[in-house]
């Protein structure tokens, strides 16, 4: 791609924060705007969450598009905090008869494909879902499957940074959660047991994850 080419795409929404570093941070209303059109962020903006709805590439750089009550624009990647990302994960339709695995898989897919009905594709399954079933559903719905079993937290965070939530098991008998964000202290996760979003420290998550042999998947 030429350095002056512009490319952007709509993405499932996620949240970012600005770096704390003492440096002038700015955004522009259009990626190709000149230096004189840059708009400076306020100091208070470092504490704010920015909801991102598009990512773009221009002059070999990555940009993030936000829109709030006061303005809309593009933030250069160099101003985005590396240790913070939260996906705007929405619960799929409720199914009280579904297992934790089925609920977690439905939420995992719903983030990227809200129009895909996981429960309908699964039908009535009485046993725990097989690895073949997980792979089949993910490939059909979002086009890919990634086994993150025994992978590092660095890989897990990388998946979330790529706008892909991670389904992680606590025990092999159906207990699982969906990770959808992190900061420098905790991970954010969806608990299919009660349908709530929660946080967990790395130490607590390691204890939980270890029980399943560190089983995890994504796409």
TrEMBL record:
Determine the domain of life of the protein's source: Bacteria
Q: Output this protein's name.
A: GW domain-containing protein
Q: Which organism is it from?
A: Apilactobacillus kunkeei
């Amino acid at each position: 791609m030429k350095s002056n080419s512009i490319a952007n795409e709509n993405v499932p929404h996620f949240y970012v924060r600005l770096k704390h570093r003492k440096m002038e941070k700015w955004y522009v209303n259009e990626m190709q705007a000149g230096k004189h059109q840059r708009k400076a962020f306020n100091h208070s903006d470092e504490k704010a969450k920015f909801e991102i709805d598009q990512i773009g590439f221009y002059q070999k750089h990555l940009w993030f598009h936000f829109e709030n009550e006061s303005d809309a624009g593009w933030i250069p990647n160099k101003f985005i905090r590396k240790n913070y990302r939260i996906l705007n994960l929405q619960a799929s339709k409720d199914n009280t008869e579904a297992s934790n695995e089925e609920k977690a898989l439905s939420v995992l897919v719903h983030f990227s494909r809200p129009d895909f009905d996981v429960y309908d594709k699964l039908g009535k399954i009485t046993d725990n879902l097989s690895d073949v079933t997980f792979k089949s559903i993910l490939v059909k719905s979002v086009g890919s499957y990634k086994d993150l079993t025994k992978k590092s937290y660095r890989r897990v965070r990388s998946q979330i940074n790529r706008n892909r939530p991670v389904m992680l098991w606590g025990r092999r008998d159906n207990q699982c959660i969906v990770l959808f964000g992190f900061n420098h202290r905790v991970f954010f996760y969806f608990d299919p047991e009660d349908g709530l979003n929660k946080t967990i420290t790395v130490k607590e998550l390691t204890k939980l994850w270890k029980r399943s042999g560190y089983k995890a998947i994504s796409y």
